Amino acid sequence: MGYTLKDICFSYENRVIFSGISLEMETGGFHGVLGPNGSGKTTLLDLLTGHLKPENGNILLDGRRLDGFDAGELAKKCALVPQDFRVNFPFTVAQVVMMGRYPHLGRFSAPGAKDRELVAQAMAATGISDFSGRHVTELSGGERQRVVFARALAQDAACLILDEATSNLDIGHTLALMTLAADRVKNNGLTVISVMQDLNLAARFCRSLVFLKNGRVAAHGPVDEVFTASVIKEVFDVSSSVYFDEIIHCKQVTIL
Ligand SMILES: Nc1ncnc2c1ncn2[C@@H]1O[C@H](COP(=O)(O)OP(=O)(O)OP(=O)(O)O)[C@@H](O)[C@H]1O
User: What does this protein do (predicted)?
Assistant: First the structure.
């Protein structure tokens, strides 16, 4: 189970982004989505979360058509950390993280002990508990990104969708959040689908990779099979040397 995309076509007005892509991303995997700027990575995530609708083709989530889910059901299945998150209203950090619980609350019902516990856990896991009372409008880009990550964790969905979710984070926080996501994949059966620009980070944390190029899937499969110099050349038009790193036990790349 997980996501199945069958012959997906999508255009923005008359700009064709996908003309018939098919993909399988199974439950309980850590899937990386890679590709050059403008190759359609964010568009793909927007299709997976139901924010955009395909013109043709079907997207199935756990075997069920995505357009058959209502927004509340989908929010319980899928939590998104968007590329850019801005709010103009001075909510506190804790209030924003609590927003992750809204899909689980009944209409007009206040958060209960379980909701507060999940919010506290998500803030602790992302290292933001110390500034839970601060206004999100006053945070740095990296601090805000950790707050949105915590909101997605609090949502407690089976699938976590990350759109360059660590782009503003320092290396320590990047490794901490990627390790947290990978641990939940391994131990809790979470599915992670993550757009990433950093090839080495993707090879280190993902189990499978989708490479997009010019609106098509250039390569898709386990990291061992598709993380190669020839795929990187085809997709990014750069020469590279791919090797197995004995210290961190995964493939890595040096761009030449
Ligand atoms: N709302 C929109 N209206 C029209 N064109 C759009 C819209 N959003 C994105 N595009 C175009 O669609 C293409 C794919 O955009 P998308 O954001 O999916 O790419 P991406 O691979 O995520 O890029 P990046 O690596 O730069 O974040 C780009 O050429 C972009 O200019």
Answer: Part of the ABC transporter complex HmuTUV involved in hemin import. Responsible for energy coupling to the transport system.
